[in-house]
Amino acid sequence: MIQSTPVRYRILHVTEYDYSSPASLCHNMMRLSPRRLPYQQVEDSHVDIDPVPVVRRTRLDRFGNQCEFFSIESQHHSMVIRATSHVVRDRVHTNGAEEISFKDLRQRLRNPNSEDDRSAQEFCFDSKYVRTRREFSDYAMECFRPERSVHESLLEMTARIYNEFDYVPNSTLVSTTPLEVLRLKKGVCQDFAHLQIACLRSIGLAARYVSGYLLTRPAPGQPKLIGADASHAWVSVYLGDFGWLDYDPTNNLVPDCEHITLAWGCDYEDVAPVTGVVVGGGLTTLNVSVDVSPEESSPE
Predict the structure, then answer these.
(1) Which among 200, 219, 283, 292 could bridge 205 via Cys, Cβ 3.0 to 4.6 Å?
(2) Domains of the chain, earliest start first
(3) 90: nearest Cα among 19, 8, 30
(4) Which residues contact residue 170 at a Cβ distance below 8 angstroms, ignoring those fewer than 6 apart?
(5) Selection from 193, 203, 194 nearest residue 105 by Cα
(6) What global pTM score does this model have?
(7) Helices (H) then strands (E): counts for the chain
């Protein structure tokens, strides 16, 4: 459903770790605060942690994502991270996105003529989870032609991934490579984002990985379940003078008011919501729940 006015959301993201034996120490990095963007206003965002850390430090990473380091240095059997945010999400207008051709954009990225071009170049190269390959360029070039609009080609490619790949929860791992996904023809949103990025970088374009949230709607007549929403992933592509525009291959659309951006980077490695190390703890059980709830629309 296309929203005509900004939408205000309350987002609750709860991460719970339970340990089979006591943990004595843990150091962690979080990326759980939504980004402030021209089309996304963050009214407030805070994270509660139990047990209470002895150290908490916030900084921006090299992509401009808000990161927070924390350390728990006492014995504990569990850890709960509860992130709450209120965000107002507006529409992104795509007028002008179709003006640059594949030929012209690739030339600009090979020989940058602006600071924006040079900044975008970082997202043309291999990263931990994304490697360029001939298989990806062959797949991508079925949608791209030299004089054709990059935006039109991206819409076709996004639709192609949506139609040719099956969304199958728990069918892959974080370590599953885009090449395996290309062969399996199934995966989850993270896999489809990595696959599309691999294809685009393999033909000389700049693409970054975006993490965030997506409002999901219950089946007709069914109540919305708390925690039924989940973290989501999609792709953002550099379109020259237009800037960056997002594409969601999992749902075959250009993200709009129902997507909330959390962070972006070269791939999942750069935007993982929580990473860290723990001393002790034995076997760890992890549970994550996300609830995205629309509230009153923001006044214009």
Answers:
(1) 200
(2) 7-90+273-294 (2.60.40.2250), 97-255 (3.10.620.30)
(3) 8
(4) none
(5) 203
(6) 0.93
(7) 6, 13
